[in-house]
Amino acid sequence: MLSGPARALAPRFLAPPPVNLHKTRTNHASTSFFQPRASPSMAALGSVLEGEEEIATCQGGSGVLEEGPMVSLSEWQGWGTDSPLPATVVAAIKEMMDLEREFGDKMKFGGVGSKIKGNLRVIDDKKKRSVYAKLSDPEQKLQYYTARQVACRLVGSRGYLCQKCWLPKEDCMCSRIVPCNLLHGIRFWLYMHPKDFLRQNNTGKLLWQLFGNQAATMCVFGIPEQEEIMWDEFKSAGKDTIWLLYPNVNSSPKSVGDIILDRSFSEENKEKPLNFVLLDGTWSNSSAMYRRLKERWATIWGEEDLPCVSLSSLGASVMHKLRPQPAWDRTCTAAAAAGLLAELDLHEEFRGLGLDKQADAIEDSLDILLDALTARRRRMGRSTTRKERHNNCI
């Protein structure tokens, strides 16, 4: 676990000096070589939900160097973040660039996660195995894994996906999304698994599309720069303002009504908002993210359990049609956020502050996303329904 400043990777895996950060083009990552058994903190990293929407299928995608080895800071932040360009991602980019130069060939990307295709796929896989095997520290392994995942999606999606809605540009839904303001007394943190980064049917992205990056902030699991930003904000706000929306079966999560508020959440009270952390990834991957949060919480505040809150009632999200959950009481990230706002609206301190309208805005955006994904699948001649995964939970 990170404790204090994030531990960097070994020097050979680090990015060039910061002056070059804005001049580096990003890369791809294949997941086949990562073995979750190699580290306890990696236990749930390799699971992929059956039938996940493909990320960027690049038809004969170009190499890393073809348009210049650059992903600028503005391009990185255009995907939905205000954080610096991660040094580990830059290092992964450089690794791929060196491979192209060494073999005089161009990388091609395609399929789920923008995996490398073509002649360099096997060579790259061997190099990744070698690098990963030499990393003895679990934190370094996690950072390397995440950097490769994120880098692959950046390069494979460049020029293909809309940066705002993460859909192919021909299916962009941005014109239909109506931004609105989230109550200043609330802030969402989208703790996102790297396999959900730039995923077309990801719903967490809807929150910052609606409310902006300051009200709904993305933090990718295993990106030190983003994780440090999040924890610095938490330490500044204080532990009593932080809640993880997670139905943890191993403890006793509180309901929204159990949250003890020591101040009024009016529009004027903006200094220390109530921070809600949403785990944005498949349910099979959420346990690793939960453990990481729990360990960091214990390091900072010396408490074994971080405060969890669960919703009293939550129906199946409309996204179940394309991305079914493993049980009826589990739903997509955006639907959980909408449910939270709706329940807070019933709380005396929040009543009449417009949270019901903000919850409705999230639900409307989910309908828009579902319509866009469904239209795309129909155009491609693919099924618009998914196999149910929770029959034994009915």
TrEMBL record:
Keyword Transmembrane among UniProt keywords: no
Principal EC category: transferase
N-terminal signal peptide: none
Enzyme Commission number(s) from the entry: 2.5.1.25
InterPro entries with a match to the protein in the record: DTW, DTWD2/TAPT
BP terms from Gene Ontology: tRNA processing
Keywords, comma-separated and alphabetical: S-adenosyl-L-methionine, Transferase, tRNA processing
Protein name: tRNA-uridine aminocarboxypropyltransferase
Source organism of the structure: Rhynchospora pubera
